[in-house]
Amino acid sequence: MMKDKDTLTLKATPGSPITEADLHAYVDDVLSAGRRAEVDVFLTTHADARANIEAWTRQKKMLKQAYDPAADEAIPLRFAVRPPARPPRWLAAAAAVLMAVASGVGAWVVRGEWDQRAMAVRAPASAAAAKAGDLGGFVHRAAVAHAVYTPEVRRPVEVGADQEQALATWLTKRLGATVRPPHLGDVGYALVGGRLLPGGVGPVAQFMYSANDGRRLTLYVTREAAGDKSAFRFSREGEVNVFYWVDEQFGYALSGDIERAELLRVSEEVYRQLG
Amino acid sequence: MGARQEAEIVACIPSLRRYARGLTADAARADDLVQDTLEHAWRRLSMWRRQGELRAWLFGIMHNVFIDGVRARRLRDTVHDDDAIAAVPVRAQQSDGLEVRDLDRLLQRLNPDVRAVLLLITVEELSYKEAARALDVPVGTIMSRLSRGRERLAAMRAGREPVTPLRRVK
Known about the structure:
- The structure holds two protein chains of two kinds.
- By secondary structure, chain A is α+β, with helices and mostly antiparallel strands.
- Helices cover about 40% and strands about 15% of the residues of chain A.
- Chain A is built from eight helices and seven strands, in the order H-H-H-H-H-H-E-H-E-E-E-E-E-E-H.
- In chain A, strands 1-2-3-4-7-6-5 form a seven-stranded antiparallel β-sheet, sandwiched between helices.
- In chain A, a hairpin with a 4-residue loop joins strand 6 and strand 7.
- The longest helix of chain A has 21 residues.
- Chain A starts with 19 loop residues before the first helix and ends with a helix.
- By secondary structure, chain B is mainly alpha-helical.
- Chain B has one domain: Butyryl-CoA Dehydrogenase, subunit A, domain 3 (Up-down Bundle).
- Chain B is about 70% helix and about 0% strand.
- Chain B contains seven helices and no strands.
- In chain B, helix 1 packs antiparallel against helix 2, helix 2 crosses helix 3 and helix 3 runs antiparallel to helix 5.
- The relative contact order of chain B is 0.13.
- Classes of the chains: A alpha+beta, B mainly alpha.
- Chains A and B meet through helix 1, helix 3, strand 1, helix 7 and strand 2 of A and helix 1, helix 2, helix 4, helix 5 and helix 7 of B.
């Protein structure tokens, strides 16, 4: 490793002479407002410094433009997106909690507030689940997950829509089949992001969407019901409306606190895109 | 530990790839570097005590993995000097513009430590302090490497600096 000969330091004491370090910091926009103003004054009388700043700014833009596209490429599936070997304990623990809720026996202990949210869908759902139509309980779990996460302000999703590629790769790896969020902009809903959740027997994906007025939809994607190809079905789980269907690979449940007709319209778009 | 931390690491992957691409100038090597970095990160996750940004911590791991690789390659190249490969790998992707490949080539002529700082500050937009923490050097060292990197890259682009000749495959 080579030794650094000269060491530039940032001395931001007001009034101290402008150094080369200040010029770099100016380009990288890390100066305090006061120091920046001092550099601005300095630049009016120092053409060479001005030329440096312009050149470095251009260079920075050029480097960003050259390498930014690499961040948007589809992510290879071989990447290690989870800890090696040892199955995560949270999965088993969280699955147990959700199962307890679904069977209507145990307490929902993750967080006090969640308890109430989950309650909103609990009672009527046990009756609904008793009907044969609930495909192994996933529709109910989807509605519970919807009720738990949509009011979340601080962290409604684990991976945001700005990292859509990473999100899709991660969920694809964890579910073991290609998963991607449909684009629902045409029907008025923008992707917020997604998260991984414990389902009845394995991980499931939840994508969250938001309309301009802040209303949120969630799309729950599971492999638990695979094989039982089915048509659209509707279920009302407490305050949450759910349209669900199954194709070869996945079961889908689209949940929302919105009117049935509106939810159907979005469901059709999801179906059109994901099959 | 759990899904949240997984998600946090996953959200860093695009940045890691971009940084690796700049470091290596080779898409396949860059992805190997990302994969090695992720494996290291999972093993050391308990050591990350949330001091600062997770992304900076991951860049630090990547840098160490990368520098180890550079050293190993140097060693290998000295041992098998006869069949040395061209020092600058050529990117396989057709879609890359000439401009990017040109830039790749020039960056590869910078000292790896200087290249790392230039990329972390300009492309990844880390603060000087974050870069110092990631590379485990003082902020003053970051500043001088940044200065040298900007200077040399500009000089090379302007053609003012004689380009060190590549070793060729015989």
